[in-house]
Amino acid sequence: MRTQVGIIGAGPAGLLLSRLLQLQGIDTVVLENRSRDYVEARIRAGILEEHTVQTLVDAGVGERLQREGLPHDGVYLQYPGVRHHLDFPSLCGRRVWAYGQTEVTKDLISAQLHDGPPLLFGVSDVVPEDVDGDSPRIRFTDADGVPQVLECDAIAGTDGFHGVSRPVVTAGTGGRLWERTYPYAWLGVLADVAPSTDELVYAWHPDGFALLSMRSPSVSRLYLQVDPGERIEDWSDDRIWTALATRSALDGWELETGPVTEKSVLPMRSFVSAPMRRGRLFLAGDAAHIVPPTGAKGLNLAVADVTLLATALTRLLAGGRTDLVDTYSDRALARVWRCTHFSWWMTSMLHRAGDDFDAELQLSQLRRVCGSEAAARELAENYTGLPVG
Ligand code: FAS
Ligand code: PHB
């Protein structure tokens, strides 16, 4: 098999990269080790930045997003007795959309299978080789158990945190890793109940953080701060709803409850791996970095990476110029660290940890953001997504 860009991983990063390159006339093959059903069933991010929405629409995969996505002009920050709305358009001229990553992935897969380049599910034994030369290859076993070799001009490692690509980059570059594990996790819940607020609520509470999000006018997505070792079996639906209602309580308002359809405990970590390139192997998305989901950056940062990478690979493979691929890692990492800082800052401000002194610092920060246009603008600009590139 031969293609111009071999893409390892069919998450949002790999699928969108394939789409963006296809629009530039660059051939790709996407290799995914899970099944289509598995990939499309994963419940992950829920907020899209404005540039993510525009990129999907411009790439011709945003039609359902425009029809079903929920445009949000802001979020609420809450602490006991106060629920304060940050109005993004007035603060920074941008907004966000509530549209599940699951739906983004389905839209991308549907487009690719309809008229896109090859997308192979159920592969195994994926190994990138000869990445330091101009003719790298990917060895893998296809879904029928047949060993294959995909000859490429370049490889994109979009295979997430547990993928095979990052170790190849760090082994060949003496790469650096930065990691921060947080002393808490999120218990995430999907429920068949209409959201109780029009936009997201990020709530600080002495018992712990709570986030009220949504997937549609009839499906709520909710999160609770829990201990990292928490077992989901110890959290009955009643216990979850009681904790959510306590942490988001506000006079004259009530949290609507309903049937829980999914619940799981998600770890919280920050992780950055540099560089994001080794020869003709380029990392993008969670393969290179992980952010705690508090800032709604994970999916959007993956989109920013592949926006830069698609332009760089097109310049290399269609124009024979290496300037953008040579600077890709540094340009992508500049935004990675900005988003890593913002995600750490939002997480540290809102999650209970430490002692009462820490709690007073958090409440002071929250009052500052809710009371200062300058402080609110800094949150709004980062949350809605800084310009890419
Ligand atoms: P992904 O991990 O999505 O995709 C990588 C793909 O590569 C997967 O399909 C995987 O099966 C495949 N793969 C792995 N190894 C392979 C191999 N050897 N060969 C072939 N394929 C391989 N972000 C938010 O903003 N908000 C959230 O609430 C949120 N919740 C999350 C919950 C969980 C449990 C996780 C894990 C992440 C969450 N994220 C959230 C972050 C998430 O949205 C990621 O940022 C996003 O999926 C990044 O997309 P990709 O880089 O494409 O990586
Ligand atoms: C979600 O809806 O899954 C979501 C929204 C905002 C976040 C994290 C997760 O910060």
Task: Walk me through what this model shows.
The protein is α+β, with helices and mostly antiparallel strands. The protein folds into two domains: 5-70 and 97-179 and 269-348, FAD/NAD(P)-binding domain (3-Layer(bba) Sandwich), CATH 3.50.50; 182-267 and 353-384, D-Amino Acid Oxidase, Chain A, domain 2, CATH 3.30.9. It has twelve helices and 20 strands. The chain has helices spanning 12-23, 36-41, 50-58, 63-68, 88-92, 101-115, 165-173, 237-247, 298-319, 323-350, 356-371, 373-384, and strands at residues 5-8, 28-31, 47-49, 70-72, 74-79, 82-87, 96-98, 119-120, 124-129, 137-141, 147-151, 154-157, 176-191, 201-203, 210-216, 219-226, 260-274, 277-278, 281-283, 289-290. An eight-stranded mixed beta sheet has the order 6-5-14-15-16-13-17-20. The longest helix has 28 residues, at 323-350. The protein is globular and about 65 Å long. The relative contact order is 0.17. P-hydroxybenzoic acid binds at residues 45-47, 200, 213, 221, 293-294, 296. Arabino-flavin-adenine dinucleotide binds at residues 8-14, 31-34, 39, 44-46, 101, 123, 126, 158-160, 163-164, 266, 285-286, 293, 296-299, 302. Residues 2-343 form the FAD-binding domain. It holds the Pfam family FAD_binding_3. This is 4-hydroxybenzoate 3-monooxygenase.
